[in-house]
Design goal:
Pfam families: DUF87
Number of strands: 18
Strand order of the largest sheet: 9-8-18-17-16-10-15-14-11-13-12
CATH architecture of the largest domain: 3-Layer(aba) Sandwich
Number of helices: 16
Shape: elongated
Largest sheet: 11 strands, mixed
CATH class of the largest domain: Alpha Beta
Radius of gyration: 29 Å
InterPro entries: HerA-like (IPR008571), HerA_central (IPR002789), P-loop_NTPase (IPR027417)
Distance between the termini: 67 Å
Protein name: DUF87 domain-containing protein
Length: 535
């Protein structure tokens, strides 16, 4: 233990009160009668979420104000009342002047509590050697930047949560843009459900739309292919899965045999094979049947393959007769290897047909994990999943089960292989708790739904629970930041984005749009054309 307390900076001029109760990390302070009074303007009243400090014998302990109360209000105005302040201890500064989370020396009864000086606030929020990146300012003192520690933020996943319209997309853009400013060789993949993020990154992003997306069918594993061809396995006979498994494995083996390779192949091995080979194998199998009635599962599988091949909307997955082994090129574009001044890949999923959206997202998430696994952490990747509650829902037995398992695997094991996950959601209560619980840093924007608040309370680290009562009162672009990616739990105001760096997520201008007439036939014709052509 250190023998000398760290130097006090402005402590003696801003006393709040004294400690009257200590219970673990919880403190109760009896506030001085003059705090907030006109006779002592320096001793202002503390605010919820403010960082205050307690001077112990050898350290300065810091705590968050989590509650203010008058336990016995006076009936007559002007009489002195007892005022109570509740604190949650978050860290301390020892004799070396460095702030550290956790408390080694707990305050005792009677210890004095003070407002924290600007100098000490800077020590708390701007820790040296943490590779911090600014994302905004601290609500308590807007002259102090709010920073995230990149390795802690990305190494253990993070989530951006809040009601629609509160600034989630802008918050994600601020965090990523500021990280990219310091780390230009990053590898970030964004699943963009609403085609918002391409404008936020400009020339530093590779935008992939359904028109130029390439995810050939042979990259699918068996679970994804089964979802695509058979659908809900509980609604179809087991024989369908058995037949599909057999013909896919055989088609892969036949092509490898032609190429004179001795590589072993399973149903999940991502090697090219011809769909014509699949249909031929199905036809041959049907020709050997004794009873025509037994051909029903073969016909179902065959017709589904032919239907997907003939549907132009699925051309990114079923490109045609020619089969090319372009897996390396696909990985290069998807994960930006080499970066070539475009460290971000924005995948616009808004135009992907709903029938295959779950399979596409599952494939991208799984490929991200598998690539990191087999590249041995050489290329750490951040996967940003917008509308995460859709892909990893709390309820079981949905069409997004493969995607949910892929995201769960990244959440549970991704850290070991260099895959970071950013979940963006407006309904955290509908998000699988097993996925959200793996996010060690949470940025919670305004949230008024009681169910969402209760769910977030259960998922949030203990040190940040006291701040949750502020959620309904947050302004746009403000958040409660909690977890290992930020120095301490706090309320932050995100930096404002430049006009050309904002996501395309504005609310429709009803008041202006409804003051003018749209009467051109060409307008409707263009809408019909885009609708029919799915672009």
């Amino acid at each position: 233990m250190n023998e000398a307390a760290p130097p006090a900076t402005e402590l003696q001029t801003s006393r709040i009160g004294r400690v009257v109760s200590v219970s673990g990390s919880q403190l109760i302070t009896l506030m001085d009668p003059h705090v907030g009074g006109e006779e002592s303007p320096t001793a202002r009243r503390p605010d919820i979420g403010e960082v205050v400090n307690v001077r112990t014998s050898t350290t300065i302990a810091f705590g968050l104000v989590t509650g203010l109360s008058i336990p016995i209000p006076e009936q007559v105005e002007g009489k002195t009342e007892l005022r109570i302040m509740e604190l949650e201890l978050i860290g301390e500064i020892e004799a070396d002047g460095i702030f550290r989370r956790g408390v080694s020396v707990f305050p005792g009864l009677g210890d004095e509590v003070y407002h924290t000086s600007r100098e000490d606030l800077r020590r708390v929020f701007m820790r040296a050697g943490d590779n911090g990146v600014r994302i905004g300012v601290v609500n308590q003192d807007k002259s102090i930047p709010a920073c995230v520690m990149v390795d802690e933020l990305l190494g253990k996943h993070f989530a951006v949560l809040g009601t629609t319209g509160t600034g989630k997309s802008c918050a994600v853009a601020v965090i990523l843009r500021n990280i990219l400013a310091a780390h230009s060789k990053a590898h970030i993949v964004i699943l963009d459900q609403h085609n918002e993020f391409a404008t936020a990154f400009g020339d530093t992003a590779e935008q992939i739309t359904p028109a130029d997306l390439q995810l050939p069918y042979w990259l699918l594993n068996f679970e994804e292919m089964k979802q695509l061809i058979i659908g809900d396995a509980s609604q179809t006979p087991e024989i369908d899965s058995v037949i599909l498994h057999q013909v896919i494995v055989q088609a892969k083996r036949n092509l490898l045999a032609v190429r004179d390779t001795t590589s072993t192949v399973t149903v999940d091995t991502p090697v090219p094979y011809r769909l014509s080979e699949v249909t031929q194998l199905l036809d041959e199998a049907m020709g050997k049947l004794d009873r025509p009635v037994d051909s029903a599962p073969y016909l179902r599988i065959r017709e589904q393959f032919l239907s997907l091949q003939s549907d132009r909307r699925f051309s990114f997955m079923f490109p045609g007769v020619t089969v090319r082994d372009n897996m390396a090129a696909i990985l290069s574009r998807l994960f930006r290897i080499p970066v070539k001044d475009k460290p971000v890949t924005v995948i616009d999923t808004s135009g992907i047909p709903s029938e295959v959206l779950n399979v596409v997202v599952s494939l991208i998430c799984r490929m991200t994990f598998d690539f990191a696994l087999w590249s041995d952490q050489t290329v750490p990747i951040l996967l940003v999943c917008e509308e995460a509650h859709r892909y990893a829902p709390a309820e079981d037995k949905t069409i997004f089960e493969p995607t949910k398992r892929a995201l769960s695997r990244i959440a549970k094991e991704g850290r070991k292989y260099g895959v970071s996950l950013c979940l963006v959601s407006q309904r955290p209560s509908e998000l699988a708790s097993t996925v959200l619980s793996q996010c060690n840093t949470i940025f919670a924007l305004r949230m008024s739904n009681q169910k969402d608040q209760e769910f977030l309370r259960a998922a949030m680290p203990e040190s940040g629970i006291g701040l949750l009562d502020e959620l309904p009162s947050l302004r746009n672009a403000e958040a409660i930041a909690v977890g290992e990616g930020v120095p301490i739990p706090t309320r932050i105001c995100f930096d404002e984005l430049p006009a050309d760096g904002r996501p395309r997520s504005k609310t429709a201008p009803f008041s202006t749009a409804w003051t003018s007439e749209v009467s051109s036939d060409s307008f409707l014709q263009s809408v019909v054309s885009r609708w029919r052509n799915q672009r």
